[in-house]
Prior knowledge:
By secondary structure, this protein is an alpha+beta fold. Helices cover 18% and strands 37% of the residues.
Amino acid sequence: MRGHDFRVNIIGLSQKEHRFEFTCGDAFFDLYGNTLLQHGDFKAEVTLDKRETLIEVRFHITGKAHLVCDRSLEPFDLLMTIDKTILFKYGEVEQELSDEIVLITRDQVSIDIGQYIYELIGVEVPIKKLHPRYQTDELEESDIQLVYSSPIEPSENEEEIDPRWEKLKKLK
């Protein structure tokens, strides 16, 4: 798998809607960097709608990410479905205005769709990766174990009340 496998030549496209399908496996994550995610199986359906002033790219990505639980270190699969639209507008300089709008020049030959697929998948990976059996926070009473307890004693400060406060309480 090479980086140009995910490049779409936009100069040769006519002004209409075009559909592309990409499969993203372990080789894809090795190509674009494996800091966010190292293993996964994804299918990306990309619809590119070329118009005179902009290019609208709609991503529909489905698949599963192979993750390791932060709590138990057990591997598990996280199912993902991602629907996102990015607008590529023509401008004087190449610039990313926001997550959804990117300026490109009219003489730009291609768009690297793979980089956007990688970023969209990476954003969906949770910061805290929990195995599905740990995602319910409801604990039964039998699962809770008291580790330490100390006797509750009234503090000395509560017993001694400043006489000025006592007089103020009587004013009510």
